[in-house]
Specification:
Its main location: membrane. By secondary structure, the protein is of the alpha+beta class. The protein folds into 2 domains: about 210 residues, Cation efflux protein transmembrane domain (Alpha-lytic protease prodomain-like, Up-down Bundle), CATH 1.20.1510.10; about 100 residues, Cation efflux protein, cytoplasmic domain (Alpha-Beta Plaits), CATH 3.30.70.1350. It has a 4-stranded mixed β-sheet with strand order 1-2-3-4. Strand 2 and strand 3 form a beta hairpin. The longest helix has about 35 residues. The two termini are about 35 Å apart.
């Protein structure tokens, strides 16, 4: 992870920490004062996001460390590990919210929450959606799985806030219309929030585990890499290209064919150009291993009398 990329990702993580902390306190205090189970559940969700953003920050800092003897390919997997931590936190919070909501429904609900609880939910919706859009787009641009995971956490909080809004509004409406049965909409919304959190947590932990394991990019994802190499001076053809994801970045293994008559030095220069161009053009490519093959077009170069040999492209074409 280059310095500029790390600074942007770290800033996004701090935005998540400060924003979630403020929302958790706001919804927690108002939820307690307004006696809203749904808002308290939503507050707990935001509190888990604080821990999640801290985990992302730790992962980003670890990933920014340069390669060493024990980690020759860098520390990129730290971001994926941070994503797993975030996902597990979501699952734990989802279970706790669900248990609390079931207990409230079982014991009975005698009053509706105060009307000002709606204000906190609306504020949460606006802030959370803004944070999701910011982090998701930045995560896509920086190719950071941890940031993308954290962004989806914000989106799950948007859904939970919508559920909380419906539950609180329904309970308040029940109080206004004199229908005590509608009071139960508040804890039912809390239970619904727990289901959303659990669903999102399962999805994210599944994706994070998949990312933690090295896997080769699909052909359509590697097509741009092949096209870029094919246009580099001195490369006749790309024999094979394997791009494997290593955490938030990609390591490329590539085999190219060059003019069989050029010198070892020229072949080395072409290989060096391939590596430099790929790492410069594609920010998520952290390293490139190039194997140089002599171009085999039916072995025309084996015959010294074959005049077509001179037409084979080289570093000088």
């Amino acid at each position: 992870m280059n310095e500029e990329r790390f600074e942007k990702a770290e800033f996004a993580a701090w935005v998540g920490i400060i924003g979630n902390l403020a929302l958790a306190l706001l919804k927690g205090v108002i939820g307690f004062m307004a006696q809203s189970k749904a808002l308290l559940a939503d507050s707990a969700h935001s509190a888990s996001d604080v821990a999640g953003s801290i985990a992302v920050l730790i992962g980003l800092r670890a990933a920014a460390k340069p390669p060493d003897a024990d980690h020759p390919y860098g520390h990129g997997k730290a971001e994926s590990i941070a994503s797993i931590v975030v996902s597990v936190l979501l699952l734990v919070v989802g279970v706790e919210i669900g248990i609390s909501a079931v207990k409230s429904i079982w014991r009975g609900v005698e009053t509706a929450p105060r009307a000002y609880a709606l204000i906190a939910v609306v504020i949460s919706l606006i802030v959370k959606e803004a944070m999701f859009q910011y982090k998701y787009r930045l995560g896509k641009r920086l190719k950071s799985q941890a940031l993308i995971t954290n962004a989806w956490e914000h989106r799950s909080d948007v859904y939970s806030s919508i559920a909380a809004l419906a539950g609180i509004f329904g309970a308040i409406l029940g109080d206004y219309l004199g229908i005590p049965l509608l009071y139960y909409m508040d804890p039912i919304a809390g239970l619904f929030v727990s289901v959303l959190v659990l669903k999102m947590g399962y999805k994210l932990v599944k994706e994070a585990i998949h990312t933690t394991m090295d896997h080769v990019l699909h052909k359509e994802d590697a097509a741009d890499l092949i096209a870029a190499v094919q246009n580099i001076k001195g490369v006749i053809t790309v024999d094979d290209l394997r791009a494997r994801e290593h955490g938030h970045y990609v390591i490329v293994d590539i085999k190219i064919s060059v003019n069989p008559r050029i010198s070892v030095y020229e072949g080395h220069e072409i290989a060096k150009s391939v590596k430099q161009q790929l790492m410069k053009r594609f920010q998520h490519v952290s390293d490139v291993f190039v194997h140089v093959n002599p171009y085999d077009g039916g072995y025309p170069y084996k015959s010294n009398a074959d005049s077509e040999l001179l037409d084979v492209p080289s570093i000088f074409h």
